[in-house]
# Entry
Amino acid sequence: MGKEQSNVKSKSDIKTGEPHKFAVVLHNDDFTTMEFVVEILMKIFYKSEKEASALMLTVHHTGQAHIGSYSYDIACTKAARATDMARSAGFPLRISVEQI
# Structure
């Protein structure tokens, strides 16, 4: 009998590493108020008032800003919470999640 081949990988064959990170990106629009953006950044993304104001101005002047890096599930949850909060307040705020 010859050697049998197996589809089972040994522990040495499995590569592990850091999980991918995802950026949450806030996009500018002409309707969401600056104060509301700062509020979302403070409440959902736990930014200080100073940092939230600086990020809001970056979005306002450049069109978008990277507001945090998280695992996929956390990034999607934060983006969904912020979007839900904006819709409840009547704002069309757009937030995306992008792999880094």
